[in-house]
Amino acid sequence: MDNHNEPHYASESPAQHNTGSHFHSNISHDTLALILAGGRGSRLHQLTDWRAKPAVPFGGKFRIIDFPLSNCVNSGFRRIGVVTQYKAQSLIRHIQHGWSFLDGRFKEFIELLPAQQRTADETWYQGTADAVFQNIDIMQRHTAKYVMILGGDHIYKMDYRKLLAEHIEKAADMTVACLEVPVEEASAFGVMGVDTAWQVTSFTEKPAHPASIPDQPGKALVSMGIYVFNAAFLYEQLIRDHKTHDSAHDFGKDIIPYLVPRNRVFAHRFQHSCVNMAHDTIPYWRDVGTIDAYWEANVDLVGVTPELNLYDADWPIWTHQEQLPPAKFVFDDDNRRGQALDSSVSGGCIISGATVRRSLLFSNVKVNSFSSVEDSVILPDVVVGRHARLRRVVVEKRCSIPEGLVVGYDPDEDRKRFYVSEKGITLITPEMLGQEIHKAC
């Protein structure tokens, strides 16, 4: 039997989880993880009108923030703070419902840290460093030796133990996780230069003309926005930066450029700690910060062997798990057949005499008879009316698609009612359909 085209999900050997001889068994108890989850993500347009970017649904049943949170738990780091600011209610609710299993009796916690104007300036968070500074007293009470600062808005699987082990091994003051990207894309990141020991020698935030890696023309080394600090050193630098009046109080713009020529700042290569790499040399990391990138990353998951492995029992992605019935497909007539082909369909969905192709359906989606959904991402609680035809769309939660609506076949017509991206992906929201707005998404 020829199985060459069957899906294959590589399982990790114990060696792949080996973090090296310099990793200390109690490192997790000495480390505080802080996830910065306060950003809006305006390039996602109406998807972030009523929720922060880390709360945006992803992958059929998850939210974006589930990835850094799962990486923390799977890596053994269970002392976690989540810094929130912009329209955080759905994010807070998701964490309360889905991440309450950590046990405070063992000093495990996920602590929500909303912007509270806690400093004498009485300001909201002014930058990434200021967001950490405003919680410095809370962090100090946890008496951590190391602080790991993570972004809450990227999709990736990473063993943070390897990052921490390298930080300790090199006696670093700060370690920055880094990624190799094409030079033409690097201007959106902080670009680093390193020496042969991978100590950072230069750092430029979002340069107009990024420099290539010396031995890799066309590639640049960029920051992932993932940092490890010795805790006492971090607190000193946050206080110093807070007193610097012309600072933007941002790690990329201010903290790192100040530290590079003065302290031991090292780069950590993501390929050394990435989990489930589909290829030997290309680690999976996605910024789903635009409608096109969001659509692509979700639709990629319905492939035979997607680059992001969500079926790995050794490194699961945890989330709030609704109690839902299984997906159901009904009717089997020639002109009315309930079917989903090359698609992912979540619990609670009913495909009733309709056809779904190359699409990802979140929970509780109902697709009614004689309709078709192709190359699309349908968020939870959507109802697709009879005879509707959807192609290359992202449909926001709780939309009710009118009977006979056709979207994705005439971009000029679609732009009259909906948002159409540069690559022709159409975003549909309840407001665009003239329906009731559900603000708590």
From TrEMBL:
Keywords: ATP-binding, Carbohydrate metabolism, Glycogen biosynthesis, Glycogen metabolism, Nucleotide-binding, Nucleotidyltransferase, Transferase
Class of the enzyme per the UniProt entry, highest EC level: transferase
One example of a Gene Ontology biological process annotation: glycogen biosynthetic process
Domain Glucose-1-phosphate adenylyltransferase/Bifunctional protein GlmU-like C-terminal hexapeptide stretches: 325-428
Composition bias type Polar residues, residue spans: 13-22
ATP-binding among keywords: yes
Site feature: Could play a key role in the communication between the regulatory and the substrate sites: Q85, W124
Enzyme Commission (EC) number: 2.7.7.27
UniProt-annotated stretches for the region Disordered: 1-22
Function: Involved in the biosynthesis of ADP-glucose, a building block required for the elongation reactions to produce glycogen. Catalyzes the reaction between ATP and alpha-D-glucose 1-phosphate (G1P) to produce pyrophosphate and ADP-Glc.
Name of the protein in its database record: Glucose-1-phosphate adenylyltransferase
Organism from which the protein derives: Nitrosomonas oligotropha
